[in-house]
Specification:
Belongs to the HpaH/HsaA monooxygenase family. Pfam families: Acyl-CoA_dh_2, Acyl-CoA_dh_N. By secondary structure, the protein is α+β, with helices and mostly antiparallel strands. It is built from 13 helices and nine strands. The strands form two sheets. A seven-stranded mixed beta sheet has the order 5-6-2-1-3-4-7. Strands 8-9 form a two-stranded antiparallel ribbon. A hairpin with a 4-residue loop joins β8 and β9. α9 runs parallel beside α11.
């Protein structure tokens, strides 16, 4: 029995020729990414061959403005690229999502900062916001200290964007070189091991003034880069309100991979008591049908989240109402949680053998175990907050800029 391709269910989107080329490049990389997935998991980082292949395909600069050497792709095209790379491996899709979108983050900076971070042609960056560090104003810049958690993709980065501040300055975004601080090897987990989501620390590091920017402005629609490159409207998207879609894209891509691999993985599995192949049992048919339906729900929710995002933050649009953002956030969280439900249905039906090292579904099992605990996929909190907003009760202590 061959594997099945269940990833091409979404309706055609009018991508530009350059976007279509990059999406196809991501699809073409899926076999290579799967081939290297075990090595990535063992070494706890994405192999350089995979990073080089993404670079060669032009994926890493996809969200940089054309005028700055990128491709100025739409948000929909970005999510599609991440989804396909995640079909190859969840950790690789995750790291790629951040390396690609963080070029977009760096493109939101002032011209002097961009000249420095892109000086060698590529501004690979990690980002970590919590807990915020401290910043002291000094001549020519700031002295910054702090230790930030979960800096995904930092093992492949030259730069890191962190948050800091003081009562005098308010919240700041700090762009530091990796060699200005220390990476702490803290990411010891059962799944998503290759994301390298370690801690990063700065100890009284001097950061020049042009690499320290007002965090609220930087994360808003009125950031410096949006003024520098008005033709690339995606730079006007509010940072924290859109990057959460990455989680749904990785989860959906991972679920697509699970459904693709499941038929071949079940070909020779036999129930000992009956000597019947499980693939011939009605219960297996039902489970696969249910998982397929669950995946379609997740795909539709992800598409809806992307459509809502592009509509709410279209050029010239007003600030969207809280109720509209609540519905968008429900789509974002549900796209991921519904995709993980599809995976769970298959894993529960596949038997204990999938836990063996090397089984096609074993790595997916461990990766989804870790993915489901990310704050963006906390459906209880997401539903509570959306319900509160939709009932006219506001967000309470939840930061408006992060919703």
């Amino acid at each position: 029995m061959t594997t099945m391709n269940l990833s091409n269910t979404k309706l055609p989107t009018p991508y530009s020729s350059s976007e279509a080329r990059l999406i196809q490049a991501a699809k073409d990389l899926v076999p290579m990414v799967r081939e290297y997935a075990r090595e990535a998991d063992r070494s706890r980082r994405i192999p350089e061959a995979v990073i080089a292949a993404m670079r060669e395909a032009g994926l890493l600069k996809a969200m940089r403005p054309v005028e700055a050497g990128g491709s100025s792709i739409s948000f929909a095209a970005f999510i599609e690229i991440v989804r396909h790379l995640s079909r190859g491996d969840a950790s690789t899709g995750w790291v790629a999502a951040f390396l690609i979108s963080h070029e977009w983050l760096l493109s939101r900076l002032n011209a002097q900062a961009q000249a420095e971070v892109f000086s060698d042609g590529e501004g690979l960056a990690a980002a970590a916001a919590a807990p915020p560090g401290s910043a002291e104003r000094v001549e020519g810049g700031y002295r910054v200290s702090g230790r930030w958690r979960f800096a995904s993709a930092i093992l492949h980065s030259k730069w890191v964007v962190v948050s800091a501040g003081s009562p005098e300055t308010g919240p700041l975004a700090v762009i530091a070189r990796i060699d200005e601080g220390t990476i702490h090897d803290t990411w010891h987990v059962p799944g998503m091991r290759a994301t390298g989501s370690n801690d990063f620390e700065l100890c009284d590091a001097f950061i020049p003034e042009h690499r320290v920017v007002d965090f609220i402005r930087y994360s808003s629609r009125e950031n410096d880069g949006a003024a520098l490159y008005p033709s690339y409207h995606v730079l006007q998207y509010p940072m924290y309100r859109v990057l959460s879609l990455i989680h749904g894209a990785v989860a959906v891509g991972t679920a697509e991979a699970a459904l693709e691999m499941y038929p071949a993985a079940m070909t020779h599995r036999m129930r000992p008591a009956s000597r019947q192949l499980l693939v011939e049992e009605p219960g297996t048919w039902s489970a696969f049908g249910e998982a397929t339906q669950q995946l379609q729900i997740a795909q539709l929710l992800l598409d809806e989240a992307v459509s809502r995002t592009e509509h709410l933050y279209r050029r010239g649009s007003d600030e969207p109402a809280l109720e509209e953002r609540a519905r968008l956030n429900l789509c974002v969280t549900a796209s991921g949680t519904e995709a993980l439900k599809a995976v769970d249905i298959l894993l529960q039906n596949a038997g204990a053998s999938i836990q063996r090292d090397g089984h096609p579904l074993e790595l997916i099992c461990r990766n989804t175990q870790v993915m489901r605990n990310h704050a963006v996929l906390d459906w209880r909190y997401a539903q509570m907050l959306a319900g509160r907003a939709l009932l006219g009760q506001g967000l309470g202590p939840h930061a408006d800029a992060m919703y």
